[in-house]
Automatic annotation (TrEMBL), chains A, B:
InterPro entries: DNA-bd_HTH_TetR-type_CS, Homeodomain-like_sf, HTH-type_TetR-like_transc_reg, HTH_TetR, Tet_transcr_reg_TetR-rel_C_sf. One of its GO terms (molecular function) is DNA binding. This is TetR family transcriptional regulator. Keywords: DNA-binding. Residues 4-64 form the HTH tetR-type domain. It comes from the Bacteria. The keyword DNA-binding applies. Residues 27-46 bind DNA. It comes from Paenibacillus solani. The keyword Membrane does not apply. GO terms for biological process: regulation of DNA-templated transcription.
Length: 193, 193
DNA sequence: AACTGACCAAAATACAATTATGGTCATTCG
DNA sequence: CGAATGACCATAATTGTATTTTGGTCAGTT
């Protein structure tokens, strides 16, 4: 059994445990047991619990990028691509066991590391969007504004419509969400005169 | 000393105490002492601590409405009015001792009642905006969309630009914020061809 | 040389004792 | 006589302490 296999064993075990129990309730012993490995072995691959967690988040972020990439179609315009990418990313985020568990953990006991992790994922998304926005800027499809601000707002807007809003009201349908996204991002509220 | 005066004494004392110490650290005895009344007297005007708190929040919300009203100018268009109203409201919210203290309290110890209170204020703002949006809808200045969703997004957008964004980056200037607000709300990102 | 698990200091938890607080009401005061 | 009061009480919050758990190490095993 090669070193690479063991590393993967640990990584898989940790993935499962973090997704199942969250950051805090995942113990290194637990991970070792699931991975069928001595606890010391984990430390030959990862310097500590944090780094192990980071590595798992990083691979989740890369997975998200892969998914987003799939949604990009050169035969569609920027806004259509944007909507499908955002949708894929947010759907992935809201269905992935790990993120669900981490969100609960933040809400219920406020584990700082869990919060940090979710922020890191969010930044990953914004960073990815930023690239798309930059490109749309260079092709002249959108106004020449700061791509960081624009992509940040995009994410916030999407989260506001999909998550924040239905904390207080009836959730919006996918079609409604798409409509509002397009209104605010593409054309604005102003009545076309 | 009339009953009305005593009620106001209590209200003023409670205002001071909530703003100075937050919800949790404000005790009824404390309020009584500041108001120069016996503790029992408080309960002749308010059934409990919660209701006392509610009354204070309500008066803050009404004060905000008053401020917003001042900003409305019939010689300006909807978007200009909107920006100035939002600005006044958010500035008030971010400078009012009570709200600063409650925000800290939520962040540091997560007092549910403090969180609830801030949400109530936020809902007050959205409710107020809703009225303005309805009116702009009826005059045909903006597209005929659900006013509740639109005003909710407006607040979220403003908070994203003024508060959320500078948790991670350099704060935006007032001019930049205004520019971005107008882009997303009025005309959208799409390059004017 | 790779791997392991007993071991340790430090952190988290559980529990008990103590204190503080919201709310009441018999008594006082104007 | 009715409005005002503060001692009083049940319960919630806090503090202090004993106990357990956990991240990380490293001498020894495979």
């Amino acid at each position: 059994m090669s070193a690479v296999d063991r590393r993967k064993q640990v990584l898989d075990a940790a993935s499962k445990s973090f997704a199942l129990f969250g950051y805090k309730a995942t113990t290194m012993e637990q991970v070792a047991k699931i991975a069928n490995v001595g606890k010391g072995t984990i430390y030959t691959f990862f310097t500590n619990k944090d780094e192990l967690f980071d590595e798992i988040l990083l691979s989740a972020i890369m997975e998200m990028k892969r998914l987003a990439e799939q949604e990009l179609r050169s035969d569609r315009d920027f806004f259509d691509n944007l909507y499908r990418v955002l949708d894929a990313l947010l759907e992935f985020r809201s269905e992935h066991e790990l993120f669900i568990k981490l969100s609960q953990e933040v809400r219920d006991i406020g584990t700082p590391k869990a919060h940090e992790g979710l922020t890191k994922v969010e930044n990953g998304i914004v960073g990815y969007l930023q690239g798309i926005v930059e490109q749309a800027k260079s092709t002249g499809e959108i106004k020449p504004l700061d791509a960081q601000v624009v992509s940040f707002v995009m994410l916030k807007l999407y989260v506001a419509l999909t998550t924040d809003f239905n904390q207080l009201h009836k959730p919006l349908s996918k079609e409604q969400i798409k409509e509002y996204m397009m209104v605010f991002l593409a054309d604005g509220l102003k009545a076309s005169s």
